[in-house]
Every structure is written in C-alpha cells, then in structure tokens.
Write a structure and sequence with these properties.
6-stranded mixed sheet, Rossmann fold, OB fold (Dihydrolipoamide Acetyltransferase, E2P), 2 domains, 5-stranded antiparallel sheet, alpha+beta
C-alpha cells in the first residue's frame, strides 16, 4: 500500500536520510523516535507538505512523489488537529468532502455514519472551543475518515491527551482500523501507543530508519545498541566487559549464551526477561546465579529492581512476584533468564 524508497529530505541542518519503508495493505505501522528524530518530516514527505530531495513514494502502486497534497490518496490527522474554530463539528468533518464536491446529501450521510462510529454524533453542532481534547481528536480523525481513503496518516494524535482519554481513544482506533481495513502510518514517541496499536514498528533515530519489525521483536530484540538505548534498555554489556567483571547471574548468562561470540559483541537483556527469586529457589534454566538486590522502585504497574552481580543490572517484577520475593536491599537473591531471551548485538 505505502512504499518509500531511499527517501531523503532536508529541513535546515537536519537531514532525513535514505528512508525505505513498506507498509502492506491493512497494516498499522507506528514510527517511534525521540524529539528531533525526523518523524514529522517523514510524515510530511508522505503527505506532500514537505519536498523530498531524492527517493520515491508510492501509494497503492502509484508514484506520488511529485504530486501536491490534495492529489494524494490519503487521510491525514495533524498533530494539532487543525480544526476550523468558526465551524461546528459537522462542517469541520465535511470540509474535505465539500472541497472534493461530494453532493451534500452524500456528505451528510458519510459524516453522520463516521460520527456515530466515533461516538460524537451528539456533538455535530458544537464548535471546537466547546470540545474536550478527546472530542477534538475524534473530530479530526472523523474528518480524515469521511474521505474513505485506505491510507491514514497520523502525527502524534494523542500527544496532548490525558492517560484515561488516550486509553479510550486507542481502543476506538484499534476497532476502527480492524473494522474499516485501514492502512495506517502513525508517528509517536509513546511506546504504549506502539504496543497497543501497531502490527509493525519502525525506529527512527537522527533521520535514519534503524529497525522495522513487529513490535514484540523491536522491543525484545533491538537491532543495534543505539536502538536498545533509545528503548530504555540499560542491560547492555560488551562481552569483554562481562569477561572482566561479571559474577553470579551475569557470569552464567555470559557463559551459557556465548556460543562463539567475539569480544566486541554486546549482550542485551530486557528487564522483564529476568526472573528474580528467593535464594535457593529451584529454577529450570542454565542461566541462573546469585546477585545482590540494591534498590527496588515502585513504578505504578510494576517494580523496577536494581541489582548487582559484579556489574549493575535491572529487572522488572509484577507486584505479585515482588511480594513473593520478600527481599530487601542488601539481600542476596537468585536471578535467571532463558537463553532465548539473551539478545546479542554486533557493535
């Protein structure tokens, strides 16, 4: 459905560099990256709002690289929603239909159907100033959906919303994506949005697309150290470093999963891939050893543990698991991991 081939663009000193990406029909692709990585520039290249310096963009097989925005077969939800303050919800949603000369009766039917789908049918006479953030977001989404384009682009659509409203809208959007068979390119810096919505995730760092894969693979098996660090994974060690300082659990992880790795390779373990148990517990893993619990921090949905086995490492436990551990800072514990969860990165 959407194909980018070696797309490059410039914005001042910033460069989007040779981005290639394929989003098959019906897939939901989230592109994640930090502020300044080029996510919005990438989206604006696809919409036609920003020119490319090289490369090609195809939508449904058609080369749209040189087409103006109004001729590209897509719907677009900008970051600030861009609702017209002097128009009510109905007229905002119908704006694109009017521009495309859709008969008024058909436009009214389409707007009504999408408004009901988004649960804003009762708001059609309101102005944007009288909408909540979630209602404004649904209006902007509805304006894109009434055009009946198979490709939907969204630029951080939930960025200004509170967590409760965001969770509700993620549910709505997931349902709409499934029911309408949309192909979606969604730009965000929020990992939870990617977990909840994406069938594929792209990681954009400093203008480069560094990894594209299903979300489970991206978050558990980052392609590079740079990607792992962006994802917040702190358990990354070069093999040479492990050889000098690893003890207990980390020595077991190093020796049990090494298999011919060279000294410059790095071992990566996500925090939730590490089990932490009372010392002496039976574990069905060859990658197990002692560690010292240094700190435990409650994060609202889980406990983040700081541990030491010659080198510092981090684990994440559910409330039930932490209660069963019954350990305090300074206590020795047993840490273990499955060899399958050890991920090696060649630097």
């Amino acid at each position: 459905m959407l194909s980018l081939r070696a797309v490059s663009a410039e914005l001042g000193v910033f460069r989007l560099r040779d981005v290639s990406l394929d989003v098959p029909r019906g897939d939901y692709c989230c592109v994640i990256g930090p502020t300044g990585a080029g996510k919005t520039v990438l989206l604006e290249c696809v919409t036609g709002l920003h020119p490319v310096t090289s490369g090609a963009i195809r939508i449904a097989g058609e080369d749209v690289t040189s087409l103006p925005p109004e001729r590209r077969p897509l719907g677009y939800v900008p970051q600030d929603y861009a609702l017209f303050p002097h128009m009510n919800v109905f007229d905002n949603m119908a704006y694109g239909l009017v521009e495309h000369r859709v008969p008024r009766q058909e436009a009214r039917r389409r707007v009504g159907a999408v408004a009901e789908l988004l649960n804003i049918g009762h708001l059609l006479s309101r102005r944007p100033a009288n909408l909540s953030g979630g209602e404004a977001q649904r209006t902007a989404l509805g304006r894109a959906l009434v055009l009946r384009r198979e490709l939907l682009l969204m630029d951080e659509p939930f960025g200004a919303l509170d967590q409760t409203t965001k969770r509700e809208l993620v549910h709505y959007l997931k349902t709409i994506h499934r029911d309408l068979g949309l192909t979606v390119l969604h730009i965000t810096h929020d990992f939870a949005e990617a977990y909840g919505l994406a069938t594929m995730v792209g990681v954009l760092l400093d203008g480069r697309l560094c990894q594209v894969a299903p979300p489970q693979e991206v978050f558990a098996r980052p392609a590079t150290r740079e990607v792992a660090e962006f994802l917040g994974i702190r358990n990354i060690w070069r093999l040479s470093e492990l050889g000098e300082r690893a003890e207990g659990f980390l020595a077991a992880a190093r020796d049990g999963a090494r298999h011919g790795r060279i000294e410059d390779d790095s071992l990566c373990l996500t925090p939730d891939a590490i089990a932490v148990l009372p010392l002496g517990a039976d574990v069905d893993s060859q990658l197990a050893g002692e560690a010292i619990l240094c700190e435990a921090h409650w994060q609202g949905a889980a406990w983040d543990l700081e541990l030491d086995a010659g080198l510092a490492f981090h684990a994440r436990l559910s409330s039930r698991e932490f209660a069963a551990l019954a350990a305090r800072p300074g206590d020795a514990v047993l840490a273990s991991a499955s060899p399958h969860n050890v991920h090696w990165i060649a630097d």
